[in-house]
Structure formats: structure tokens, C-alpha cells
Design a protein that fits this description.
Its main location: cytoplasm. The chain is α/β, with parallel strands linked by helices and 556 residues long. It has 17 helices and 23 strands. It has a domain of 60 residues. Strand 3, helix 6 and strand 4 form a beta-alpha-beta unit. The longest helix is centred in the first third of the chain and has 21 residues.
Length: 556
Amino acid sequence: MARQHESDSCLLSVILVLWKWMNSDASCAQNALARAKLSQRERGILRECCRAARDAVDCAREALCVCCDVIGGELPVGTMAGVRGMLARGCRPRSLKLRLGGGHNDPAASAALGSSILAQITAVPSLSVAELSLAGLPLTAQVVRALAAAAPTPRKLCLRSYDLSHCAGLPGTLPSESAPSGVLGLLRHAAPHLRRLELSPLKVPVGASLAALESALQQCSRLESLTLLLRDSNDRPVSWLPDTSAMCGLLKLDIPYSQLLPSHLQQLAALTALTQLRIGKVQVAVSAAAAGGTAVPGPAGPAGLPLLPLPPRLRTLGMDKKIDAAVLAALQLSACLTRLELPGVMLRDDTAYGGGHLQPAAAELLLVACRQLSGRYHRSTRPRAEYLQFPFAVPRQPFRVDLGLASPPPSWRGTYGPLFAALRPAALKQLSLSCAALNVLEVDALVGHLPRLQVLELPNGLELAALPFLHRLTRLRKLCVGLGGVVGTGLVEAWGNEAALKCALLVLCREAPSLESVTLDVCEWVESTDTLDDALAWLDVMLTDLKGPHPVVEVE
């Protein structure tokens, strides 16, 4: 208490010193002169205040993060001294993050630095680290022992960019055949205590058995959150679902890019506490049988397909790949599942497109699948950086409905109106629709059922006569129209008519209140380039005369 009182007195006293600068209109040079005129007592107060502030910050610090490069075999002396000073001033971190470079470090020096930092932490009485986040630290036997001493009962373990093909988990160390895996050794130590585990990404040798990893994961009986992203030595995603039967309290499971069979969903349905699940995709029954999967006994769903069970308390379900309509229709979505993150829906079965039209059974399945989105659909969240094979950012895409070039079935009276009606409860703001080119009636139905659209992509195009009617989408900001789908159809003549094209584009751009950009993708229809360029040059002149901003129209 006495030390706290002294610190408070210093903090109050320094206000009188700083007040001189705050009330000064002098230039930077004059401020420097003012600082030079500080009395010895005032300088002492300022130094003591800085020390007190530093001590207060270190004492309140709950996470210790060390990020540095270890190159050329030389240890960063300043880093070790900084950690030593923070601990001496009362820093008692519950979380330790060690990020040593970006893969170009000297392994021996990195291990020595990590061991030194861990030894300093272990030397502090009654200090036990509860959360570990490691990247670039070679997990040698000595380092693993030091980690076990510093964190005897860790609640969280996060390993970024480690490799099971090396004994210390990093390139430049011995291959795994020559010594036990440090990654698995650390995981076995932490497993009985862990509440949260992240292995993302973890590289495994191509074709190697994952029995040792599964054995270590089975010891994580207290786990509440598991993130598992596996890649092989060629940096390709590895689809694998570990045995989760011992993880009775698991609340969150994140296994991106995994391809699950119906039997895997049966396994996950036993996780009665699970509330969040993210996977890659679920294979349909035909694909699952080809991959060696077995049908899951249970009640039949739409089109006679077996229903696919999910954990009873699941509130959030996310998938990284477009989902087959048959799978989405067969999912048993409970009332508590209120967040469904999907990039899109598609019809994978080739028999769905007989004669260029959707087959009646496939069309009905599609409607059932789209109705599953009602009140649940949310745009897919952006992938985390460590999930990506390439480090650049991936833009969030519109919800995709992929029907190839199929036309609507006769039962829908020649329009996709029933599809748009089924999508209406999802309240879509962004849509990419791949199907036969839309006609005027279909655009009218789209506008009526999906009025909230802000981004619309039509890769296979639409009738030119239907283009102006899109201005009724009052919130539409971005429109992308692909013209490859009109090649070989009766729509070519209209799109090749320069006068008609000018008129349609002018009406759209003048009447759409929120439109910011229009992109026309010629695809393989290169003959249309000259016509489009002439029309856009004329349109630019016409739009320039309008008051206020106008849409940007481009050709790709």
C-alpha cells in the first residue's frame, strides 16, 4: 500500500511539470528548450513517474508476448533483458505467446532463447502459465520440459505452423523418425488439463498414419474448444475427423476444409454440449458410398434420402464449401440453430439436368434446401489467415446458387420464380446465380422476392430486355453480368444490337437509385467487344451530363 501511495503521489506531481508544455504555444524547438530548463527536482519527479507507470503496467499485465527473429545464431540480448526486467517488476503473466520469426530462424538459437525465457518464468515463485501460444519455437526435448515446468496445468495450447514430419516440429530440425515428436510430447503433457486446443495449421507427412495424434487427442477429456487444420507436406488440406467420443464437454469444433461422410455426422451428433461447428463440406450419399462410407440408418428425408443428424444444442453451423442441395435438405436443423454460414448451394447430381431442364425431383429438393435457410442464413465469415494456403486476403463472396445452365422445370411455368420465393425468407443481400439466362418474367420475380439485394452476379447473363427492370432493386449497388451464357442462343442478336444495348444500359444507370458499378464480362464472346466499347463510350458521355454521381460501367 505504501508503494502504491508513493506511485500515486508521483503521478499527481508530474501533472505540474506537464502543465508547462500543455499551456505552451511555443514551437518544437522552444519546447525542447523548456524541457532543458527543468529543475533537477522536476526531472527526478518525471523519471520516478515513468518508473511508477512502467511498474503499474507490468504488474497488471496478464499476457507476455515475445515476438522476434533469431538469425545467425545470436540471441537477442535485449529481448531476454526485457523479459527479466518485467518479471522483476512484478509481471505475473497467465498467458505466454512466443512468436519467433517467420520460418527463417536458427533452430538451435531459437530453442536456446525459448529455454532461457521459460527458465526465467519458472524461477518466479508461485507463477504458473495457463495459456501457451507458440510459433517458430523448436519443440526439442529440453524445450518441452521447460514448457511443462512453466505451465504444469495449461488450459489453452495454440500451435501455429508446426510439422509432425520433424521431431522438433519445424523445418531444419531432425526428421521425426530419429526422435520422438516434440509436438506430440507437449500435447500429451497438456492433454489432461486443456480446455482449448488450436493446431492450425499442422503439417503431416503424406500418407502417414495419424494414430499417434488421435491417441493424444483422446486424452483431452476436458476440452471445450478444438481447432484442427491439417495439411500434408505438399501444403494440401487433409480431411480428418478425430475420435471425439471422450470430449463430452466440447462446445466448439472447428475443422475447416474437412470432408465429412454421413457417418461422421452421426458421430458428431453424440456431442450433446456442442454449440458451434465449422467444417469443409458433407459428401452426398452417392459420393460417400464411393469413398467407402456407409449409409446411416434413420428416418428418410426429402427424395427418400436419410436424414442427417446434428448435435442437439448446436447454434452455429458453418461450411467452407458450397453445399449440395440434397445434403442441405436432409440436415436435421433444430430450433436452437440460428446461424447457418454457407458460401452457397448447388445441384451436384448430373441427372438433375435432363434435357436442359431441372428434373422435377431435383427442383423440389432445391426448394426444400433453400427453405432451410429461413431465419438462419448468415454470410460466411472471412477465413482466418492461418487457414489460407496463400497469405493474401480473400474477399467475401456472395451466396452462390449453382445450377449450371439448367432451365426451370415445366412445373415452374418456365420461370425461376418458385426458387426466388423459397430464398425470400433468407433475406439475401448478395447473390450469385448460375442458371440459364434470365428472362423478363424471372427478373420481375427476382425483384419482387429479393428486394434487399445489394450485389447481384449473373454469370450466365439475362435477356437484354430484362436488364432495365433491375433498376427496381432499390438497394442494388453492384451488378455483374456474364455474357458467355448467351453465346449460341437467340439472345446474341439483342446483345449485339448497339442501339438496344445503349438504351437498356442508360435506363438502368439513370433509374437505379443506389447502383455504383456494372460489370459486363464478355467471357468467350470476343466478337461483342467492339459493340460494347462503343456503347460504353456513348453511355459515359450521357451519364456525365447527369447531376450527381453515376454508376461506373466496365467491360472485362
